Amino acid sequence: MTCRTPPGHRRLRHALVLASLAAVLACAVVAGLALGSVRIPPGEVLTILTGGAEPSPFRTIVLDVRLPRVLLGAVVGAGLAVVGTVLQALVRNRLADPFLLGISSGASAGAVLVLVLGVGGGVGAGITTTVAMPAAAFAGSLAAMTLVYALARRGGTMTGGRLVLAGVTVSYILSALTTLVLVVSARPEHFQEALFWSLGGLGSARWGTLAVPAVVLAAGTAVLMALARPLDLLLVGEEGATVLGLDTARFRAAVFVLASLVTGVMVAASGAIGFVGLLVPHAARMAVGAAHRPLLPVAALGGAVVLVVADLAARTVAAPQDIPVGVLTALTGGPFFLWLMRRRPEGAPV
User: Fold this and answer.
1) What angle do CA 322, 328, 331 make, to 5 degrees?
2) Which DSSP letter does residue 55 get?
3) Ordered mean pLDDT values, 10 residues apiece, the chain (350 residues)
């Protein structure tokens, strides 16, 4: 006899998981604002956040330097986790994430191309970071995702091994093209900025860089929440979803475009940060199950927690040196990916 959890218990568990993650995120944000090359007492941080502090160096550090960085980490982490969750459903493979499938590399290539060409420079230099760079990153991520999907799909079928191999191949090609563009440009400052795109980091976060990623994350997550039922239908397989009335080809194409848009904007703000979209969805499924309506908010909060904590570690482990946060996520995500590869059989479904 199969024992099913009552709906009321599932809702209670979901609410408890969300509340716990929100509390952990709040603590991580306070820690991110308090810790660094200059230590600030948590009580002082809370006083500054509530507007009760007088103008001081601490207030400047918290509000103008650390708070934009912490908030950008939360937004980017949430966005990458949400995209990873959706991609794993779309391709029915839990090894999928924006980094491994080459989407992040495509976004980085587009952003670096804009940087080298100086699109939006001159009088309207701010256009480069606010409009041209996210647009180019989106175009690059969409092109990379389309190419990976086309290479991995043969004869109407797609295996996990072929998908990952196509993603890694496309990622290497795009990285090589990015390097070629930088070499041809022959400007040292471009090499320094390209290191940011390849390793990922939040050190360039400013209040002006937060608006576009935050709006795209909120809008993208809202749309994906509305598409939770079709995403759930994909879990039963393509034939089953078609029988239940879903136009899988059109639906996948639309959601791929949306996922590429979110990824492109996140990469334009933070560079390519790997494995957040791989690690977090697995943990979220273990907490609330595979249904996407409860899963997506949990994945978003979980991704925010992971990247805020990872960035805090990047700033403090080798202080005063700032380690690129993408290095730390790769050090933890790489072994997890190898464990997944050994644990799941070839072509195993989601």
Assistant:
1) 145
2) S
3) 64 93 96 91 90 82 93 96 92 80 86 74 49 82 86 70 82 85 71 71 86 94 94 82 79 88 88 88 91 95 96 86 85 77 55
What are the distances in angstroms from CA 284 to CA 290, 293, 295? 8, 12, 6
The Cα–Cα gap between 81 and 303 comes to: 5
| Structure tokens belonging to residue 328 | 């730390």
Sign of the torsion formed by the C-alpha atoms of 329, 333, 335 and 336:
positive
157 SS3 class: strand
pLDDT at 158 (0 to 100): 65
| CA atoms within 13 Å, Cβ hemisphere of 321 | 4
- What's phi and psi for 154, nearest 5 deg? -135, 130
> How high is the pLDDT of residue 180?
81
Report the distance separating Cα 167 and Cα 141, nearest Å: 12
3-state secondary structure of 154: strand
| pTM (predicted TM-score) | 0.87
Say what the pLDDT of residue 119 is. Answer: 61
Tokens standing for residue 302? 């979980």
User: CA-based angle 256:259:260, to the nearest 5?
Assistant: 85
Contact call for residues 160 and 283 (beta carbons, < 8 A): no
Can you give the pLDDT at residue 2?
46
- Residue 15 is encoded by which pair of tokens? 């609410």
Do 93 and 340 form a contact (C-beta atoms < 8 A)? no
d(CA 96, CA 104): 12
Query: How buried is 251 (Cβ within 10 angstroms: 0-12 exposed, 13-18 middle, 19+ buried)?
Result: middle
Distance CA 137, CA 256 (A): 14
Among candidates 164, 116, 112, 165, which has minimal Cα distance to 140?
A: 112
Which pLDDT score, from 0 to 100, does residue 1 have? 42
Task: Supply 248's token pair.
Answer: 């899988």
Find where tokens 């475009």 sit.
257
